[in-house]
Amino acid sequence: MDTLLLAIKIVITLLVAILFVQNIVLVEVRFLAWGTRMPLALLLLVIYVLGMVSGKALFTFIRRLRSNRKHSSRY
């Protein structure tokens, strides 16, 4: 089982590396008055990380709301 998980991790890492190497072309990113040029692979990585952070924050917020609701209904 450990060998299978290691093989899956290696395959995923290789796929991500291939994605990164094949998407080095520069793209222009514009947001409101701000603009920059960056490699597409870097843009994908930034968007992915921002999605992880915002998703974690959203789930933490929802968990706190549920926890507060449970505690307030006890009293």
Overview of this structure, please?
This protein is α+β, with helices and mostly antiparallel strands and 75 residues long. It has two helices and two strands. It has one domain (2-74). Strands 1-2 form a two-stranded antiparallel ribbon. The mean pLDDT is 87. Keywords: Cell membrane, Membrane, Transmembrane, Transmembrane helix.
Quick structural summary:
By secondary structure, the chain is an alpha+beta fold. The chain has helices at residues 2-22, 40-74; strands at 26-31, 34-39.
List the helices and strands and how they pair.
Layout: H1 2-22, E1 26-31, E2 34-39, H2 40-74
Keywords:
single chain; about 80 residues; alpha+beta; two-stranded antiparallel sheet; about 75% helix; flat
Give a short account of the largest sheet.
Answer: 2 strands, antiparallel
- Average the pLDDT over all residues and give the rounded result: 87
Domain tally: 1
Shape: flat
Give, in spatial order, the strands making up the sheet with the most strands.
1-2
Give the DSSP E fraction (strand runs of 2 or more residues). 15-25%
Protein name: LapA family protein
Transmembrane segments: 12-34, 40-62
Pfam families: LapA_dom
Domain Lipopolysaccharide assembly protein A: 22-71
